[in-house]
Design a protein that fits this description.
The protein is an alpha/beta fold. It contains 13 helices and eleven strands. Helix 1 links the parallel strand 1 (3-7) and strand 2 (26-30).
């Protein structure tokens, strides 16, 4: 791939453009919002100049509702040898595109499983897709050359290609992406009118659950409007679990010992099913989730403290597998939780104590 046209310079489009430009591809940028295209160009994602002729690949990075029209316009203008979109819904846009009567052999639907709570070109990074799944949904009509261009794009963005049927993809993302967004928003909404005393008790658990609730509602309305059925199906299952759990919790308030026992069993059932589901979430590099030991360290809110603790861990020959930071409410301090291999935990603990860090159990 030598040339590409990115249509839509939001987070995903600009990130893909940055990755391509950084690996020597001549990238052309266009957006209905000229300011966004100028911003993306200023970041080094490519040029606003129109290509002199057809490019190798056109990447359509617009909201799902606008994908068919944008693709059809680009394909009828013959701007590229191959076309793909990066929308988070695949089945509906593909069917709409077929209804428009365009050449489907030149198109492949794709979806990089990456994103942020922030949107727009200023949130974009060239490494956004590194190590992340990038779904490809070829059909019988998809030309081999177009599939190869899509695979090259995925490789240049250092993502991991995953081939799926379009409708199977939509059911999958309803489960692992779209429904979690709604549930995170619902939990966060309980905080909007909560008493300030309760809000001050927020810890890492509520921060983890509500992190994605900070996402742009306008973007998610576009996504959910394009995939309402599969999301509603998943939510219906969650709703049934909620009703059962509410009944179990009410039973725990009963003076009847048998009812309390049944209630405890019901709550335990949903928690254990949650354990089983969590165990299926892929861990580092897509492998089965590993069990790590946590080394908790008290850290002050001063510049360079995180860098120093990582440097000290590196000097001890310990690889940090994951990290979490829990801020202390109203204090200039926090607790850094360093996740490491179990065999490395004693080594890291001893090394950090030797260097003056205060560890917590």
């Amino acid at each position: 791939m030598r040339t590409a046209l990115v249509i839509g310079t939001g987070l995903i489009g600009t990130s893909a453009a940055l990755a391509l430009a950084g690996r020597g591809v001549a990238v052309h940028l266009t957006d209905h919002d000229l300011a966004r295209a100028r911003t993306a160009a200023a970041l080094g994602a490519g040029t606003e100049d129109a290509p002199e002729g057809p490019v190798d690949l056109a990447v359509v990075a617009v909201p799902p509702a606008h994908v068919p029209a944008a693709l059809a316009e680009a394909m009828r203008a013959g701007v590229a040898r191959g076309y793909l979109d990066v929308a988070s819904v695949k089945g509906g846009p593909r069917r709409e595109l077929e209804a428009l009567g365009v050449d489907m052999s030149a198109y492949i639907g794709t979806h990089p499983m990456a994103g942020k709570e922030r949107s727009g070109p200023l949130a974009a990074t060239a490494d956004l897709f590194e190590g992340r799944p990038w779904v490809l949904t070829p059909t019988r009509e998809t030309d081999t050359e177009v599939l190869n261009l899509a695979l090259e794009l995925v490789a240049l963005c250092r993502a991991v290609p995953v081939v799926m049927d379009a409708d199977a993809h939509d059911r999958a993302v309803a489960l692992v992406s779209h429904t979690p967004q709604l549930i995170s928003s619902m939990v966060a909404a309980r905080l909007a009118d909560a008493d300030e005393t309760a809000v001050r008790l927020c810890g890492q658990g509520i921060r983890d659950v509500t992190r994605i609730a900070a996402s742009d509602p306008r973007m998610w309305i576009d996504i959910l409007t394009a995939n309402p059925g599969p999301v509603a199906d998943v939510l219906a299952g969650v709703s049934a679990d909620l009703e059962e759990t509410v009944r179990a919790l009410r039973a725990l308030q009963s003076p009847d010992e048998d009812k309390r026992r049944d209630g405890a069993s019901g709550v335990e059932n949903v928690l254990r099913r949650g354990n089983a589901g969590r165990e299926r979430v892929p861990g580092k590099h897509g492998a089965a989730p590993a069990v790590y030991e946590t080394v908790a360290v008290l850290i002050s809110d001063r510049p360079g403290e995180l860098a120093r603790i990582f440097a000290d861990a590196g000097s001890a020959g310990v690889n940090i597998e994951d990290v979490r930071i829990e801020h202390a409410t109203g204090q200039q301090a926090g607790l850094v939780q360093l996740m490491v291999e179990p065999s490395a935990a004693p080594v890291l603990s001893a090394a950090l104590r030797e260097r003056g860090w205060a560890l917590r159990q």
